[in-house]
Amino acid sequence: MADNEQLLGSVLIANRGEIALRVIRACKELGIKSILAYSEGDKDSLGVKEADQAVCIGPANAAKSYNSPELIVSAAMAFKADAIHPGYGFLSEKSNFVKMVEDEGIGFVGPSSEHIRRMGDKIEAKKIAQAAGVPTVPGSDGVVTEFDEALAVAKETGFPLLIKAAAGGGGRGMRVVESEDTLERDLNEIMNEAQSAFNDSSVYIERYLTDIRHIEIQVLADGENAIALGERDCTSQRRNQKLIEEGPSPAIDEELRAGLQEAAINLCKEVGYKNAGTVEFVFDNIERKYYFIEMNTRIQVEHPVTEMITGVDLIKEQLRIASGQKLRLTQDDIQIRGHAIECRINAEDPNENFAPRPGKIEHYRAPGGFGVRMDTHIETGYTIPPFYDSMVGKLICWAETRDECIDRTLRALDELKVDGVVTTGPFQAMLLNSEQFRSGDINTGYVAKMLENMDELPSDAE
Ligand code: ADP
Ligand code: ADP
Ligand code: MG
Asked: Ranges for the Biotin carboxylation domain (predicted)?
């Protein structure tokens, strides 16, 4: 900790798994007291052992623990936490929760409830992007409720088109419509799905782009200034969910990067954004143009990719901003060096349609060596609880070049052993080792296409 640095005294962490541990580690290094709010399902987790203090807030059922604003806020008050770090998922993008935190006078390691509310509505976010002069995917002007309106938009976008829930997230709340024949039925179904999944039936329409990459820009902002920390390429997806992320993108040159970064910064300045955020774009491989799709107003799963290529500890910067400090870094301080790749290691069986495979880890062996980082809460003897998502860790590798980074990641995946459960590691190794990934010439559909032609997927199942 630097002398006289103004920092929060204590932070309550309202999350679990690897991200809880990640925040605890940053707090320790800064001399901030970490208080972990955990559920009964996580009582034996590494986060509980490593936090300065830990408080059980409820049963394993997330609705009665991690997703309960009342329980989190009362734990923060009882332990006199100066601020709450929400991690990702759970309450991290729930503006009502953050409003409650603000009203109690507790700090929040993230943007204001107002920013979360406005950006969390993907329709409003798109309007803000347009106001900031950022290109967006052609589609409806706003919410679409009637078949007639949808049909009129379809005349502009053509088919296939994409219906998206304004409140969607985590790859859910999206449907591709192939033709006019099913448009009415699809519209009604996705509105119903959005209502039950997100408690908001608002949907909108976008042109469905077929040969695209997912490119996102990491930002840090203090309410006045904003800086961009390069891009992450998250094109390796299955069912709109990210499997592998890397930076820099093999498809982006200096000029495109400058344009993307400027767009992301303009968006932040348009609303006076504060804390860390990610501005997501789809990038058309043919036209080589980018379009804003959404902003995530929180730290993201794949943030270590950016940390490895910039040397900036994003969680510490989040904590500094939440402590009331202005950005310490300027745009000129951000230099991209080398290449980083992250694999999200999920306890899932690729040969059972990626069904979750929780259970006891009989033996865990961490990969190591130069440029290898494993962010995980698992250890030998730990039982992965069945109540939460199936991500058990992230393997992030850094090397001077993309090719060397692929080889290093393959080597590290080979060292990684999580005996007792089935993981996606061998499947990710196959993707990394494919000619397509190596060439860098991929789109968001390449994984699905590869899967179509395979009967059996590589697996560490015993
Ligand atoms: P990131 O955007 O950080 O790359 P994801 O989009 O996969 O990662 O989301 C991060 C976590 O938050 C995942 O655990 C995901 O399941 C969860 N999540 C994101 N948005 C929602 C949502 N609207 N409803 C429920 N869970 C969500
Ligand atoms: P989420 O909130 O679930 O992360 P996003 O809006 O970020 O939803 O989209 C998730 C993924 O869906 C993108 O990374 C991309 O692969 C795909 N996608 C989103 N919009 C479009 C579009 N207009 N055309 C084609 N694919 C899209
Ligand atoms: Mg997204």
From this structure: 7-452
pLDDT for position 171: 85
Asked if the model's pLDDT at residue 3 lies above 70, the reply is no
Q: For residue 446, what are the contacts with CB-CB under 8 A and spacing of at least 6?
A: 235, 236, 436
* Beta strands across the sheet bearing 161-169: 172-177, 161-169, 203-207
> What pLDDT is attached to residue 4?
75
Closest of 393, 394, 260 to residue 336, by C-alpha: 260
Q: Is the CB of 239 under 6 A from ligand 1?
A: no
pLDDT at position 95: 98
- Residue 330 CB neighbour total at 10 angstroms: 9
Mean pLDDT along residues 425-442: 98
Which residues, other chains included, contact 317 with Cβ-Cβ below 8 Å and sequence gap of 6+? 220, 276, 327, 328, 329
pLDDT over 90 at 345, yes or no: yes
Q: Is 298 a catalytic residue?
A: yes
254-271 vs 122-131: helix axis angle to the nearest 10?
110
How many angstroms separate the first and last alpha carbons of the chain? 46
Q: Is the CB of 200 under 6 A from ligand 1?
A: no
What is the reported pLDDT for 462?
83
Nearest residue CA, atom 8 of ligand 1?
301
Q: How confident is the model at residue 96 (pLDDT cuts 50, 70, 90)?
A: very high
Q: Which residue has the tokens 């993008």?
A: 93
Q: Which helix (H) or strand (E) holds 204?
A: strand 203-207
Ligand 2 touching residue 343 (CB < 6 A): no
The pLDDT score that the predictor gives to residue 170 is 85
Active-site hit among 118, 232, 298, 402: 298
Contact 75, 93 (CB under 8 A): no
Distance in Å, CA 279 to ligand 3 centroid? 9
Residue 88 has pLDDT above 70, yes or no: yes
Q: Could you tell me if the CB of 89 is within 6 A of ligand 1?
A: yes
Cα–Cα distance for residue pair 43/49, rounded to 1 Å: 9
Whether residue 248 has a cis bond before it, omega within 30° of 0: yes
Residue 1 confidence (pLDDT): 53
Q: What is the pLDDT of residues 259-282, one digit of tens each?
A: 999 999 999 999 999 999 999 999
Residue type at 344?
R
Is the pTM value of this prediction over 0.90?
yes
Beta bridge partners of 419: 363
Question: Regarding beta strands 203-207 and 212-222, do their DSSP bridges make them parallel or antiparallel, or are they unpaired?
Answer: unpaired
Q: Can you read off the two tokens belonging to residue 196?
A: 């039950």
Domains of the chain (ranges; CATH) run 10-109 (3.40.50.20), 138-207 (3.30.1490.20), 212-452 (3.30.470.20)
